[in-house]
């Protein structure tokens, strides 16, 4: 299994790669006087799984919201693929290939799993209303749809949820929804995926499976930044770890480096690290 | 066992339920049931053939025009989550634009009627539709940032502003750059002659002659022909909205309805989709305004466009179930047949058989008569209030629906948004998948 061995290589030799795909500099954000972000700076290297950790209220979700454009920072800058994307809307950031998922899965409940999967891809000709209607044009749209179906099907197979293709997404279990949301985000073909607690509510065996999928995808050129609370999981599977506390970046480094800062972390995280 | 999810399908025996699955059967059997009811009432009232045909024509006319409006509400609310309760406003824009443009210019108009711009009718109709679409764009642009309930308020206010504007005496007759035109104010405005009527009025129409030969009133030919023209528009609208909803465009609309923020984070410019869906619907409403309020009676007043009409249209959609075109049409047939026109029919039957006579008493008079044992004044009073009866029945139906079936008759139906049959593709893939496994097994 060459893929697996490559994954192993990557897990251990990630520090060799130094291309930065996403970086934030000195992000500031306060909500009605309460400071949420107070100078957050970090870089995410391309083709890595990077973990963003920190206690509740450290500002992880706010950081995600600022990066994806859901909220605008008071100060600071977000760079993505050498472009300043600060203050762009979620539509604009996701169009550029910076896609997020949500802490609580937000699948389209009243649509089938397959429809969920076929919605995101960009530049669908059938999104122009008249092309979907006029007989001559509609042939092209149908051809696109056939292609799109094949892609969606492969992705569903990859995540092992193809048996649910025709089910309403609202009927899926919590774990299946997480899988669907991740699979759906991948249909945009993003460079960077921001995953907000992708394993919350997912049972351990599914979690392992999901992690294998992520590593597989990383090896195919994608970058993941994930917020997670499970320290063991982060330590085992992330090449880089960013520790946040009280709206600031505390430590950034490899799991080993972060572990060596254990004293600091223990002090801040209240001994959560074992 | 049948797997129908709607309350009617579940109660049918399996052999029939499989037919019920088909949308056309649903529509036509509901229509047939309501037709049968009206024919029965017609027999009770002793209608002749002309009377029966005319009663059905009136029913069909209302079903068709309400159906077109209900389909637009379904596009806006059912498929896109746009809470448009200004439906009548866009109809008013369409008919008033077409009318003012097509009125003959001053000096050439028949005496007493308001002059206009003398634009040929087909062009005026196109202009009316485009103006309604433009009005939809203007109304949608600032308000799409608002939440649903606020969007509803904006559209309602928009329609009311239009109605009051058309009613204002300042705009009754205006002189501008040598042109004389106007809205006619509260008195209304003569629209244009119905082309279908005009066509059949030219003497020597063979169809009219044939009908009259067999002893029928020739008037039913143009009347029914006009209904057929409207029916064509209904079928076109149904087809258009079905295609739109079963497409990548409709898929994004569905996504917006479910979770707009999630749709945005998947690189979809949701405002653009919402505006386009809204404008398409408003254009159809403009056309409907022209053919319904403009062409059918030859006269239009601002008071036709009261919010009540919008709410009636909404109720038709709610009964059928938002999110399903078929449900919307079935809901419209039931609403028009039973709630809108039902009280009037019952009244006619009661009048025929009970032989009510005398002037309509006031409510206290009716009550005191009831106390003294005379039920006639109460009946007389009750059945004189047809419009109030409609509202009462509407309320009862809504309460019943909210308790028993909030999603409407066919509201929980799955209509997959794709230009291809995804179920079929999935089944093919699964077959291929299991086939490959078997053949792999053979090789081993």
Word description of this protein:
The complex is a heterodimer of chains A (274) and B (444). Helices cover 41% and strands 23% of the residues of chain A. With 274 residues, chain A is an alpha/beta fold. A six-stranded mixed sheet of chain A has the order 6-7-8-3-9-10, with helices on both faces. In chain A, strands 2-1-4-5 form a four-stranded antiparallel sheet, covered by helices on one side. In chain A, helix 1 packs across helix 8. The longest helix of chain A has 24 residues, at 135-158. In chain B, the strands form two sheets. Chain B has a two-stranded antiparallel ribbon with strand order 1-2. A two-stranded antiparallel sheet of chain B has the order 3-4. Chain B has 20 helices and four strands. Chain B is an all-alpha fold and 444 residues long. Chain B has one domain. In chain B, helix 4 (49-79) packs across helix 15 (325-340), helix 11 (248-258) packs across helix 13 (270-294) and helix 16 crosses helix 19 (386-404). The A-B interface holds A 68, 70, 89-91, 94-95, 99-100, 102, 106-112, 114-115, 118-120, 122, 124-129, 132-133, 138, 141-142, 144-146, 149, 153, 162, 165-166, 168, 184-185, 188 and B 240, 243-244, 247-252, 254-255, 257-259, 261-270, 273, 276-277, 280, 323, 414, 416-420, 422-423, 425-426, 429.
DSSP helical segment count of chain B: 20
Low-pLDDT windows of residues of chain A? 1-17
Pattern of helices and strands of chain A: HEEEHEEHEHHHHEHEHEEHH
Strand content of chain A: 15-25%
Helix content of chain B: 55-70%
C-alpha geometry of chain B? globular
In what range is the share of β-strand residues of chain B?
under 5%
CATH superfamily of the largest domain in chain A: P-loop containing nucleotide triphosphate hydrolases
Distance N to C terminus of chain A: 33 Å
């Amino acid at each position: 299994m060459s893929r697996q061995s490559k994954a192993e290589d990557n897990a251990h030799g990630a520090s060799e790669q130094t291309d930065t795909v996403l970086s934030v500099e000195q992000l500031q954000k306060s909500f009605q006087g309460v400071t949420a972000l107070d100078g957050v700076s970090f870089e995410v290297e391309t083709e890595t799984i990077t973990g963003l950790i920190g206690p509740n209220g450290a500002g992880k979700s706010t950081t995600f919201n600022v990066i994806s454009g859901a909220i605008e920072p008071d100060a600071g800058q977000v760079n993505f693929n050498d472009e300043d994307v600060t203050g762009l809307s979620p539509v604009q950031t996701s169009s550029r290939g910076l896609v997020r998922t949500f802490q609580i899965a937000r699948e389209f409940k009243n649509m089938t799993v397959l429809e969920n999967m076929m919605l995101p891809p960009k530049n669908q000709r059938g999104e122009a209303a008249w092309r979907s209607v006029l007989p001559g044009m509609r042939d092209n749209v149908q051809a696109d749809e056939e292609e799109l179906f094949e892609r969606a099907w492969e992705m569903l197979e990859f995540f092992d949820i193809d048996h649910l293709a025709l089910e309403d997404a609202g009927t899926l279990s919590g774990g299946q929804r997480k899988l669907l949301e991740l699979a759906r985000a991948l249909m945009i073909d993003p460079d960077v995926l921001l995953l907000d607690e992708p394993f919350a509510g997912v049972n351990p065996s599914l979690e392992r499976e999901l992690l294998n999928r992520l590593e597989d995808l990383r090896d195919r050129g994608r970058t993941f930044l994930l917020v997670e609370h499970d320290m063991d999981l982060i330590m085992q599977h992330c090449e880089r770890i960013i520790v946040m506390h009280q709206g600031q970046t505390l430590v950034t480094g490899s799991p080993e480096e972060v572990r060596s800062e254990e004293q600091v972390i223990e002090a801040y995280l209240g001994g959560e690290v074992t | 066992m049948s797997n129908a999810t709607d309350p009617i399908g579940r109660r049918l025996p399996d052999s029939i339920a499989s037919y019920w699955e088909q949308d056309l059967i649903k529509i036509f059997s509901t229509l047939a049931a309501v037709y049968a009811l009206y024919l029965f009432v017609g027999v009770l009232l002793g209608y002749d053939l002309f009377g029966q045909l005319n009663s059905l024509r009136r029913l069909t006319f209302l079903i068709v025009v309400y159906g077109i409006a209900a389909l637009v509400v379904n596009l806006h609310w059912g498929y896109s989550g746009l809470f448009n309760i200004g439906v009548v406003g866009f109809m008013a824009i369409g008919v008033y634009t077409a009318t003012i443009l097509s009125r003959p210019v001053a000096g050439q108009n028949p005496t007493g009627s308001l002059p206009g711009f003398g634009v040929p009718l087909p062009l005026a109709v196109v202009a009316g539709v485009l103006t309604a679409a433009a009005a939809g764009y203007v109304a949608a642009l600032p308000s799409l940032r608002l939440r649903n309930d606020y969007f509803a308020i904006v559209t309602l206010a928009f329609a009311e502003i239009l109605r009051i504007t058309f009613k204002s005496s300042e705009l009754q007759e205006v002189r501008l750059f040598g042109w004389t035109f106007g809205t006619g104010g509260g008195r209304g405005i003569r629209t244009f002659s119905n082309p279908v009527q005009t066509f059949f009025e030219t003497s020597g129409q063979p169809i009219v002659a044939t009908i009259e030969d067999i002893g029928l009133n020739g008037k039913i030919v143009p009347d029914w022909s006009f209904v057929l023209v409207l029916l064509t528009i209904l079928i076109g609208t149904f087809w258009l909205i079905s295609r739109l909803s079963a497409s990548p465009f409709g898929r994004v609309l569905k996504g917006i309805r479910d979770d707009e923020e999630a749709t945005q984070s998947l690189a979809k410019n949701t405002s653009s989709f919402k505006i386009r869906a809204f404008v398409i619907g408003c254009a159809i409403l403009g056309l409907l305004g022209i053919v319904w309020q403009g062409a059918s009676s030859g006269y239009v007043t601002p008071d036709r466009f009261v919010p009540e009409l919008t709410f009636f249209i909404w109720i038709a959609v709610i009964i059928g179930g938002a999110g399903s075109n078929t449900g919307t049409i079935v809901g419209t047939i039931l609403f028009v047949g039973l709630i809108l026109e039902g009280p009037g029919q019952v009244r006619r039957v009661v009048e025929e058989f009970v032989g009510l006579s005398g002037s309509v008493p006031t409510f206290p008079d009716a009550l005191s008569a009831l106390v003294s044992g005379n039920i006639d004044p109460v009946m007389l009073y009750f059945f004189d209030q047809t419009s109030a009866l409609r509202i009462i029945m509407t309320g009862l139906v809504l309460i019943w629906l909210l308790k028993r079936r909030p999603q409407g008759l066919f509201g929980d139906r799955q209509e997959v948004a794709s230009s291809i049959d995804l179920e079929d593709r999935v089944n093919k893939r699964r077959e291929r998948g299991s086939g490959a496994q078997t053949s792999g097994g053979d090789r081993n």
